[in-house]
Amino acid sequence: MSSRAPLLLAAVLLTGCAFVRGPSDRDPFARGLWPLTNGDRRPWAGVMERSWLGPVVHGESWLEADGALVERRFELRPLYSVRRNDELVRHDILYPLARWREGSEGTLGWLFWLARARYDPETEAREKTLGFVFWGRTGGGSRYWGVFPLFGTFEKLFGFDQIRFVLWPLYARGHRRGYTETQILWPFFAYGRGDGRSKFRFWPFYGVKRREGVSVHRFYVWPFVHHHLTHLDTATPASALYVVPLYGRRDAGPRHTRFYLFPLLSRKWNDQYPATHGLDVLWPIFSSERNVKGHTYWALRPIVETRRSPERSGWTVGLGLLGRMRVRDEALEGETIRLLWAGRFVWRREGERETRVRDLWPLFRFSERRDPDGTESGFLRVPYLIPLRGLDPDGWDRHYNKLFEVYGARWLGKERRSSLLFGLRETRDSESERWVNWAGFLHWSR
I need a labelling partner for 215 at 20 to 30 A (CA). Which of 51, 67, 157, 394 fits? Predict the structure, then answer.
């Protein structure tokens, strides 16, 4: 290799890695050497950020107007992240495998299934687990420990105040208030009595569970025959008998259910409201329901499903491949369209607040909200890699999403910020000023 090659390589890198220092504290890009490092200082907005190696290392501080620290964040993606504020300290390692939380509601530590620690400041209960060894102390001061499944004592777990076990599932005994239950070779044999309750089980041949004056549940040759009496302490006690798959019935006052040669045919009706009924044929292929309030449901799976009521109407085809739902009542008006299980397009108005969502996983997600005072806030992410709805979006953002983000934008009112290719091009817009940073070269206008 020529001796000039290192100099040429350095020159090429520096054309896109220029060092920048702004003319004042109002300059958001206080310093930068992209993509090695980028700094974003906006004291008037209460934000100070610093990134190294594109999206891999990131630090962020949130400040009050007087400069007091509100929250500090740090990410070493995808390995580690931490958030600290007055209410919470949160550590994650290879999210979601290992985590540590400290806050007003207590302390929780978790290392996959290998280790766990928990502390409740309200009751001062403590619990620790390391592999198969566990120990702890209840809020009342009682200590417990064990080596699962050899021997030990659990406190306040599985609905019991205390459980003692030896060579589980060979033997276990649990106490709950005045009730005591013994299990031998779980789930085959169990019996219990106390506090108005009793249980006997010789699985799978016979079992009975009673709550005096309230309910009786029996089974014979599980799972084929079941007999239930419930709500005996009310004006409408219920009884049920199931001989699977031949016949089943449930009667509770005017409400009745029957099935014959399940899943061949089942139906339900209400003597008090003749318009209320339901029918299933070769469940889950065909279903039909109607109630006294005008709610109707009809399905021929996997082809189509429909729902209608005075406030809602909608349909889906192909078990959710495509669907549409409309809602309109005094408090809420909206529409949701679903596509291929991964696409969701939502418009919703609650009073004077309006929300729009455009989500096509994993390609992008757009979300915007307009508040009653006219303020608009939202974000756009391309791509948006959170695999399932309901998972912690902040955790996936801090560890994974930013590593693959091609374009991202956030806005609140007239303040907007966006980033392309991990800071190759970044913009900040406000009512009176605009900043553009392209590969480390800073420009501003207005």
Answer: 157
